[in-house]
Every structure is written in C-alpha cells, then in structure tokens.
C-alpha cells in the first residue's frame, strides 16, 4: 500500500479557462498530449476499423457453447426437469441442472449485497426468465435447439409484482427459503435527523409534497453480457474472458464461489461494449459456463441474447419516492424529507458499497444549503429480475438528484417564483466549501451559481420565458416549457474505510514502467468500457513526466498482469485510478531526479522539475536539462550506484474523500397540445468536473449521457404485466433513443478543481445521465405549470403527456388550424 | 441470431420462385427480412424452407409506367425515400418512406414485403388503400391483380394464395388536382406507429373534392379505410370545418385497441388529429394555398 504522503500529493492549480470558453489547446506547455489537450482517442483506430476484440470475438479450439433454459413463469415450483430429449440431439454435449451444480457446490452464488442467488433454480423460480438449466453443445444453434427440448414441469404460483403489493399482509412470500423470512420485506433504512426535520417542517410557512416514480430502467449496453470460460486441467487454472467492469473483484468472487485458489483464476475483460453498471454484478451465466468448462474440460462460451440481458441482468432505479420540502414564504428551503419504496426484485442484488443499502441516496439535499433532512426507505422483494445497479451513476445518486431537482421546481411553482432564482437563493455558497451536508456528506468544492449563470446565458433564458408567456396568452397549440437542473454529483468511491465491495476497500491502482528506450507502460486496476482510459490516463502520465502521450500505452482488464483494482463504475476511474496514475508518475519523477543529477553531474538538491518544458534542469541553468526519455536510458544503462536500476513505480490510491462534480442543465421543450408530443427546442449542459484532462472525451461523455437521460425521461421502462411477464424486455418494447431523437446539445463548462485530488479532477462520465432527467421533466411540467400541473411521470410518451394535458384542461380539440385560399378566376390547378 | 434450421432456396427468376412455392411444403418468402428475420431470431417463425427472392433481379425496380407508379418486389423503402419521381409527385409515399423503421432497415425492407406481411401497424398498406392501389400476384395459374381493398383480410393475413408471390405494388399516377400526404405518430424512430393516416384528394376545376382516399395505420385489425370520411369530403371545398368533420368520421371508423402505444381513446383521437393534418397537406399539394392559423 502507498504511504500517506503519496495520497496527499499537493493539489496544483492547472491553467484553465475560468470563463468556461473554449479550452486553449495546450495546458502543460509541452504540447505533447498532457492535461487539457484534445488528444484523439488511442482506442478509436481499432474500434473504427473493426479490430476491437470483444468476448464474442474470442474463439478457442474445442470451444463449446452454452444456452440457458429459462422459466416462462415468474413464480413457480419446479417439479421435474427432463433433459433426455436434448441429450438425444447429436451436437448436445451436456445438460446441466441445479443438481449437477450441487455436486460441485456451485448451486448458489453470493450477490454484491450478500444475498444468495440460485445459479440454476434449485426449487422455486422467482422471476420470469430465471435460469433453470443449461445446455452445452458444439455450436450455438445446437445449444438453442437443445434448450428447446429440455422439458420442465412447473407448479405455477401466484406472482408478486410491485413493491407496494409485495408488502401487503396477504402477499405470497417469495423468499421463504431464508431463515425467519415470512414476508417480502428486505430492509429499512434511515438517514438524517427526523426530530430536527420535523421541527423545521412544523415551523415552516410553506411545505410542498410530490410523489414520483423513478421507473425501472435497464442500462442496456450494446454488447450484452457473456464470457468464455476455459479450465486448464494441466495448470489447474481457470481463465475467464468476460464482460466485466471489475475484473479483479470478480476474480476474488470467482475464487470464493468456486474454491479455485485466486492465483489460479485469471479474469480478462477484453474490449467491452458499454457497461453502465450492468457489468458490475456476477451473473449465473458466468458461473454456469465456468462450471461446464470445469466438468467437460473444454472452453465454454456463453453470450446473452438481447432479451436475456434486459429481462434477467441488473436493472436500475425502480424507486417510488415521496418528497417534501419546507420553506419560508420568500423561498428559503429549510428542510427536506423523502420516503422511498424500493423494488429490488427477487434477490437483493443491488450493486452498492456494502455499508450503503440505499447507495448514496442520502445526498438528496443536492446543491442546496438545507438545515435539516430526513429520509426513510424500505426495500422489498418482488417476482421480478434482481437488480438496483448503478446505471451510469454513483449508487442511487441519480434518484436523489431527480428527487431534489423535481422538488425545487414544485416549490418554485407553489411560491410562483422563477425556478432559476430559487436555486440561486438556496445554493451552497461558493465560499462555504468544504461543506458538510445535513446528511453528512463532505462536499469538496463547488461554484453552483457560476454554472447556472452560464447555462442561463447560453440557453437565452429570458427569451424563452417571454415566448412561453406569449404562447400562453395566445392559447397557442404548442406550449413552451423551460426546465432546469442544477445537480451535484458524488463520485470517486472510496474512501476504503467507508466504501467496499464485498469487503474489499474501494481503492484503485496504477503501475507505471518506463522502458530503456524512453516509452512507458501504465497498468491500471480499473477497466474501460468506452470511457477512453487508454488516452486519458496516458495524458495524466504525459503531463506528470513531460512525455509524449504517444509514448505511453495503457493496459487494463487482465488480472494476471494488472495491479488489483475495484473497477470502473460510479465515475470513479479518474478520481481514484487517475489519482493513482498521477501519484505513480510522481514517484517515477522522484526517482528520475537522482538519475538526472547523476547524468547532469549536479547535486540532487540543485535539480528542479520544470513542468512547462517537461524537463529537469539545474537550478539557475535552464540549458543544462534532461528529459524523462533521456533519464530512462540512464536508469537502465548508467544507474547511480546508490539506486536500484530501472524506472518504475506503483501506487495504490485510497482517496481521502469523494469528489463532487456539478453542473446546470437547461432544457426548452415544445409540447403539442393535440398529440402530447414533446420536441426539444434547446438543450444546454454546463458541467464542472474540476480540472479537465481531455475536453473532447469529456464532451463525448456528456453527449452520450444526455442521450441516456433523454431515453430515461422520454421512453425507457422495463414493464411487467400482472402475471409477472416482462412486457418491456426487448428493443421493440424497451425503447432506446436513436440519433433521430437527440437534439443538438450545447455544452459549456466551468472549472472548479477538487482540492484533495492530485490533479484536481473530479470525474464526469455519469453527470449527464444523473443531471438531465429532472431538467427534461421540469421542462415538460413547466409547459403546463400555469394550469397547475406539478408532475409528469417518466417515461413521458406522447399518450402519457396527453393524459396530463387533458386532465389540466390544456388538451386541444383536434383542429385543422388552417385556412385555405381559393382564387376562383385564375390559375389552373397545379401538379402536386 | 440463432434461428432454427431451415432450407434456403435462391431462385433467380419469378417462374423459378413460383414453382418452388408450388412444390415446397409451406415455404416462407424472404425479401428484405424486416419482419421475418426478427421472427426467425425469436423462433416465432420456424419455416422448413425459405425462398429468398433477393436474387430475382427482374423484381428490382421503381418507376412510372403506363399510368402507374410501379414498385417491384425488391424495391426497398430507401428506394422510395430516394426517388425523385416519388418526391415530385407522390406526397404520401414521400412522407411515409422516411418514417418507416430506421435507415438500416429501410435499406433492406421492401414495400411489397411490408404489404405481404399485412401487419396492421405497417405504413404502406394505408398508403396503398388511400391511393386505390393494387398488387400484382404471380402463381402457378398465372398473373392477377388484387386491389388494395381486397388484399388485407386479418392481421398478418392477405388474400394471396400460398403458392403466389406478389411481384409488384402499384398506385395510379396522379391526375391534375391531386395531392396526398401521410402523417404518423410514434414514440421513437424504429417504433411502430401509435397511429398513422394517409390521405389523398383530387380536386376538380372548381376546387371541390372529386375523390378522397383515407387509409389508417395501427388502429384496426388491418390497415383500414375510412369510407364515411371519404364520402363526406366528396363534392365539398376544403375547409377547416370540413376537415374537422372528416377527422371525427375517420376516428369513428377506426377501431384501435389499448396497448403499450397508448389507450384506445387516445389513438382514436390521434386518428382525428392526423386525418386533419394529412388532409391539409394533401390539399396544399393539390395546389391550394394553405395558411396556418398563427398563434
């Protein structure tokens, strides 16, 4: 582990454009791809030219294919499984059931929340499409043919759909196999100070309340989950290429579940086609494939179909929230309360740090200086797929941001004040940081008003407010709505003492080796699923060592070669592994200094590092200088006698605190009073993620996350019918936005560095997904708030919006809204 | 995609295709695969034999000929979308093509295949109905034409014989004073229509509506006409009031079901809205100056 001084490497102010205008092209001075430069992504060449290597691209000699037999019922006892007709097919090699797995003690697996999930159903099916048996065959078509032939007899039970229904007294008990479990209640959780909050509410001049559902979503990465498991009986070693956002943690879990010693387990996460939290948990398919490979001593591939991915792997959200705000008559927010009913599905398989059953939901005071806060939450089992993963989000911060940003709009409407002004009035002031919130979070830095002001200006806010009024006065058939979200994020978990995954502290790591010829390999414990780590982390090293970014290669995803890390999710890669990379580079620089002294024939105390030129030079003699590349040669060919040869360093970074990116998004919509359709007129996103490493990658992340925010607000929903059938379980019914649905985004930024992060960066990947849904909903509500509409549930499909219009008396009778002009004397009718 | 096993035939002439259809046991025709491939993927379709007509070059055309716009069985949605003659003279087709699915699917999916699929949520059936179009079918007994009104029987069921192949869909070329349009409401690109309406009008010299055709998408068990609305329009000059009445009549004629695309009452109302919008555009394209009521 690193020494303490490594982790408290002094924060340094980087040059940045405080006005948030276009970033100057070069920041560190050497112009070779350091901090702030728009370096073209190193990974793009292989992706664009079709040379990516995803799990399903991997083929091994004698490889078999696994297809999973899934339950058509949501709740049913298994009476019998007969695989004989499948085994009769020529190309089918094996049919596995829970009985087979029991022999190897692999019938169950732990979830990340310490629940126990069946790998293959042992007794009772608990959600539709749950894994019942597995067919192993010589090709994937034969495996599917075989799966169709497996005969399963079910005793169908009444399903429990919906958390509220699940907690009713007479609801069937889903988890009766658990000791003492005689209902569907999982846990209760509380945060904040209930008494202080009640006092504030009792004394408040104004209170508002709104119930809102954050619907069940699926991260829906374009690449589904899958693996190739390969047990090597010669080396007694299990190698699993898998779609993993956290290969090292998965190695430990794999070892624990299988009993194979950890040094004999190798997890490789090759190119991964999007994760978004979906690839953090372990799924039964991985375990089945590994078990099959172990038993059959051949490689086994398992790759999900799209509908299997949506119907069975970790969903996100599904929080039914009731929020309340207490305020003074002039709009000062004094207190916030929230009560949540959380649907966790059939197992508690959320992906949260283990001490946080509701994730970081208690950051629901948001960007506001609120005296008192109290939250309560109840989790319930239902006969639906397990989940509650952090979909492009730090552990329920998305739900928290939605709650507070919606409630601020509700309050603004109640008080009839401008929603921008009430935010400004209640923001945590920029001079109050570091700031401790009412629920105990320590915000590192922020300047919320600056981001809001910039967004208001970019959005031409006043113009749209006037246009909105004009349309209302003219009873226009299309209404204008303006929505704001001034969100604060919490990312970069650890610290390890607070945050762990299955007991492993959430640090992360970097191992930097400079070669004799002056280029370098950086190995990191996090893993990329499209975030651009191979470029961004190389830029951090380039900045710290004055090297050319092209001379640094970043490796990740192979547990045999990379240092242990906790993986990529929750925007933690830059805050944690990025810090580790910077600290490791500084360690290399420290060692390089003595070599520089040796090479420059000067005393070490006379050598100084010049960040601008990216060189060491002798104090007072700038022309007596040496680069890291030149030093590298010395480290291997002429190393000082009192130093070890070589030039490398490792850092395990345990962050002292989390980081708090923020931003203000402003969305202008037009709502069609005849059809309920919503069109985006303007979409402004101002983000502050601290010091910016690669502005182009940041902008790409913002665009992608905003698109997902639009999907969330407008169309995505994993739906179930009363029998527990998934009715939103494929891309015909689980609607993802396409480029056609995405408006032109106008992005801007401010820069407020994190004071405790070695390079002042905060993380950005999830900000747009977290921040944009409330801005979009607030916009649609705003279009109708003059008719006392206070809320519209997501997803805001045309029919759903029309219902709200209709209830508010705003729906227009269908009308042609045209006049025709006829000239009876002249012109012939024209061609059409 | 892990389809069940099937036999794949690739005829290169229509005669060869027809004789395969006659000789094989329950063959399935593959054109663009827009609907068949997903059904194969889910194993909802498990044909023993697939007759793939993509190799029949003679079916790959889209042109005006002998008073018709003719679309061969291999004319893709993208061909319609990119056609100049369509853009210049066939407003409803030009409107509908880019609203179908997404660009990738439009490059493969065919107009004729969509009609043969007879999904009530398909767009082309409504256009064909509004235009009084027809399809040309070839079978062992030779060639026949089936008017649009007689093509669609039930969801996914047409009056086509099992050994017949639709070789062409065609709509009459517009006369002077004709205009048409298609309006569709959907939740996203690639989603089926929540509702869609095709409208076609022919105006006489006095600018009265001489002929009217209205075809509706996704609001009945097949693509359906709105005959009362059509009759109500004939003999009248276009006006907002007239269109409001026609919209109501079309909505009454529709018979939607509540589903994930919205409840029945909403869809009926949208038929009203879309009928009026489509009629407005059709009349404008027929040469009448249309002014939007400003608000």
Structure explained in plain terms:
The complex is a heterodimer of chains A (832) and B (295). With 832 residues, chain A is an alpha+beta fold. Chain A has 3 domains: 4-53 and 508-653, Aldehyde oxidase/xanthine dehydrogenase, molybdopterin binding domain (Aldehyde Oxidoreductase, domain 4, 2-Layer Sandwich), CATH 3.30.365.10; 62-157 and 222-274 and 279-312, Aldehyde Oxidoreductase, domain 3; 315-492 and 658-807, Aldehyde Oxidoreductase, domain 4. In chain B, helix 10 (227-233) packs antiparallel against helix 11 (240-253) and helix 11 (240-253) packs across helix 12 (264-285). Chain B contains 12 helices and 15 strands. By secondary structure, chain B is an alpha+beta fold. Chains A and B meet through helix 5, helix 20 and strand 34 of A and strand 11, helix 11, helix 12 and strand 15 of B.
Biggest sheet record of chain B: 5 strands, antiparallel
- The total of helices of chain B stands at 12
Spatial strand arrangement across the major sheet of chain A: 3-7-1-14-11-12-13
Q: Can you tell me the number of structural domains of chain A? A: 3
Low-confidence stretches of chain B: none
Summarize this entry quickly:
The complex is a heterodimer of chains A (832) and B (295). By secondary structure, chain A is α+β, with helices and mostly antiparallel strands. Helices cover 27% and strands 25% of the residues of chain A.
Question: Which short descriptors sum up this protein?
Answer:
heterodimer; A: 832 residues; alpha+beta; Aldehyde Oxidoreductase, domain 4; Aldehyde Oxidoreductase, domain 3; 3 domains; 7-stranded mixed beta sheet; 6-stranded mixed beta sheet; 20 helices; 27% helix; globular; B: 295 residues; Uridine Diphospho-n-acetylenolpyruvylglucosamine Reductase, domain 2; Uridine Diphospho-n-acetylenolpyruvylglucosamine Reductase, domain 3; Enolase-like, domain 1; 5-stranded antiparallel beta sheet; 4-stranded antiparallel beta sheet
């Amino acid at each position: 582990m690193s020494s303490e001084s490594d982790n408290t490497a002094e924060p340094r102010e980087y040059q940045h454009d405080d006005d948030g205008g276009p970033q100057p092209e070069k920041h560190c001075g050497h112009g070779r791809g350091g901090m702030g430069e728009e370096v073209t992504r190193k990974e793009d060449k292989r992706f664009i030219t079709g040379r990516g290597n995803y799990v399903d691209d991997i083929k091994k000699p004698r490889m078999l294919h696994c297809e999973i037999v899934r339950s058509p019922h949501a709740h049913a006892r298994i009476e019998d499984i007969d695989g004989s007709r499948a085994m009769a097919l020529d190309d089918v090699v094996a049919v596995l059931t829970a009985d087979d797995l029991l022999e190897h003690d692999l019938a169950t697996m732990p979830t990340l929340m310490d629940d126990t999930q069946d790998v293959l159903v042992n007794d009772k099916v608990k959600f539709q499409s749950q894994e019942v048996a597995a067919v192993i065959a010589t090709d994937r078509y034969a495996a599917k043919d075989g799966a169709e032939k497996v005969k399963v007899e079910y005793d169908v039970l009444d399903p429990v759909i919906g958390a509220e229904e699940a907690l009713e007294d007479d609801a069937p008990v889903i988890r009766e196999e658990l000791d003492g479990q005689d209902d569907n209640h999982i846990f209760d959780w509380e945060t904040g100070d209930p008494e202080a909050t009640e006092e504030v509410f009792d004394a408040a001049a104004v209170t508002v309340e709104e119930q809102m559902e954050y619907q069940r979503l699926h991260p829906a990465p374009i690449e589904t989950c899958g693996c190739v498991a390969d047990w090597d009986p010669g080396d007694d070693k299990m190698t699993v290429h898998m779609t993993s956002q956290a290969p090292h943690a998965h190695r430990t879990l794999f070892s624990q579940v299988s009993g194979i010693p950890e040094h004999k387990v190798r997890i490789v996460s090759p190119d991964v086609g999007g994760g978004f939290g979906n690839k953090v948990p372990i799924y039964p398919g991985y375990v089945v494939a590994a078990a099959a490979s172990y038993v059959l001593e051949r490689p086994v591939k398992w790759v999900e179909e799209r509908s299997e991915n949506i119907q069975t792997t970790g969903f996100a959200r599904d929080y039914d929230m009731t929020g309340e705000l207490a305020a003074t008559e002039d709009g000062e927010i004094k207190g916030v309360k929230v009560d949540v009913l959380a649907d966790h599905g059939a197992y508690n398989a959320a992906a949260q740090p283990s001490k946080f059953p509701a994730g970081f939901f208690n950051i629901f005071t948001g960007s506001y200086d609120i005296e008192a806060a109290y939250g309560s939450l109840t989790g319930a089992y239902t006969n639906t797929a397990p989940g509650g993963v952090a979909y492009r989000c730090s552990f329920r911060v998305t739900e928290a941001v939605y709650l507070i940003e919606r409630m601020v709009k509700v309050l603004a409407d109640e008080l009839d004040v401008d929603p921008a002004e009430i935010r400004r009035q209640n923001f945590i002031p920029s001079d109050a940081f570091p700031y401790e919130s009412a629920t105990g979070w320590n915000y590192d830095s922020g300047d919320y008003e600056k981001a809001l002001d910039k967004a208001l200006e970019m959005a031409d806010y006043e113009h749209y407010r006037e246009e909105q009024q004009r349309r209302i006065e003219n009873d226009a058939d299309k209404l204008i709505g303006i929505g704001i979200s001034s969100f604060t994020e919490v990312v970069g978990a650890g610290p390890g003492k607070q945050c762990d995954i299955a007991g492993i502290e959430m640090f992360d790591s970097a191992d930097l080796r400079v070669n004799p010829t002056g280029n370098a390999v950086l190995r990191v414990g996090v893993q990329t699923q499209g975030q651009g780590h191979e470029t961004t982390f190389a830029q951090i090293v380039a900045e710290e060592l004055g090297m050319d970014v092209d001379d640094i290669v970043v490796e990740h995803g192979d547990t045999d070669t990379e240092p242990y890390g906790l993986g990529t999710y929750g925007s933690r890669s830059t805050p944690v592994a990025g810090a580790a990379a910077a600290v490791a580079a500084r360690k290399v620089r420290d060692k390089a200094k003595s070599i520089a002294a040796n090479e420059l024939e000067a005393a070490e105390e006379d050598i100084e590092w010049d960040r601008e030129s990216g060189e060491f030079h002798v104090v007072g003699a700038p022309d007596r200088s040496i680069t890291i590349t030149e030093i590298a040669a010395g480290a291997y060919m002429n190393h000082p006698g009192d130093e070890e040869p070589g030039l490398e360093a490792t850092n395990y970074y345990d962050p002292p605190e989390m980081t708090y990116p923020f931003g203000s998004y402003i969305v202008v919509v037009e709502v069609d009073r005849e059809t309920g359709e919503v069109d985006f007129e303007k979409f402004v996103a101002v983000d502050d993620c601290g010091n910016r490493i690669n502005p182009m990658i940041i902008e790409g992340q913002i665009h992608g996350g905003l698109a997902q925010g639009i999907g969330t607000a407008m169309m995505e929903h994993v739906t179930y019918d009363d029998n527990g059938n998934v009715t939103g379980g494929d891309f015909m019914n689980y609607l993802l936005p396409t480029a056609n649905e995405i408006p032109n985004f106008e992005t801007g930024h401010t820069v407020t560095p994190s004071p405790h992060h070695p390079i002042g960066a905060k993380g950005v990947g999830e900000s747009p997904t977290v921040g944009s849904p409330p801005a979009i909903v607030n916009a649609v509500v705003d279009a109708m708030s003059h008719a006392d509409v206070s809320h519209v549930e997501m997803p805001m499909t045309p029919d759903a919006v029309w219902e709200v219009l209709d209830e508010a008396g705003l729906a227009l009778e269908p009308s042609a809204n045209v006049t025709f002009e006829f000239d009876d004397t002249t012109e012939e009718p024209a061609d059409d | 995609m892990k389809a069940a096993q099937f036999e794949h035939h690739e005829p290169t002439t229509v005669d060869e295709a027809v004789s395969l259809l006659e000789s094989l046991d329950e063959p399935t025709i593959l054109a663009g695969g827009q609907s068949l491939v997903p059904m194969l993927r889910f194993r909802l379709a498990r044909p023993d034999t697939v007759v793939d007509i993509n190799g029949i070059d003679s079916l790959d055309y889209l042109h005006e000929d002998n008073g018709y716009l003719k679309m061969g069985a291999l004319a893709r949605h993208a061909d319609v979308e990119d056609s100049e003659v369509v853009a210049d003279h066939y407003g409803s087709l030009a409107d509908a093509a880019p609203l179908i699915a997404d660009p990738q699917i439009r490059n493969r999916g065919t107009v004729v295949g969509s009609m043969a699929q007879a999904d009530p949520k398909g767009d082309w059936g409504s256009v064909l109905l509004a235009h009084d179009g027809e399809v040309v079918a070839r079978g062992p007994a030779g060639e026949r034409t089936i008017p649009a009104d007689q093509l669609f029987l039930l969801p996914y069921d047409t009056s086509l014989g099992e050994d017949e192949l639709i070789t062409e869909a065609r709509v009459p070329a517009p006369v002077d004073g004709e205009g048409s349009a298609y309006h569709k409401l959907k939740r996203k690109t690639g989603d089926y229509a929540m509702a869609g309406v095709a409208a076609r009008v022919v105006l006489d010299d006095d600018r009265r509506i001489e002929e009217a055709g209205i075809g509706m998408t996704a609001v009945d068990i097949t693509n359906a006409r709105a005959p009362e609305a059509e009759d109500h329009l004939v003999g009248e000059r276009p006006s907002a009031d007239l269109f409001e009445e026609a919209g109501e009549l079309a909505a009454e004629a529709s018979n939607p079901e509540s589903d994930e695309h919205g409840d029945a009452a909403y869809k009926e109302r949208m038929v009203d809205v879309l009928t009026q919008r489509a009629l407005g555009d059709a009349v404008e394209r027929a040469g009448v100056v249309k002014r939007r009521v400003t608000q």
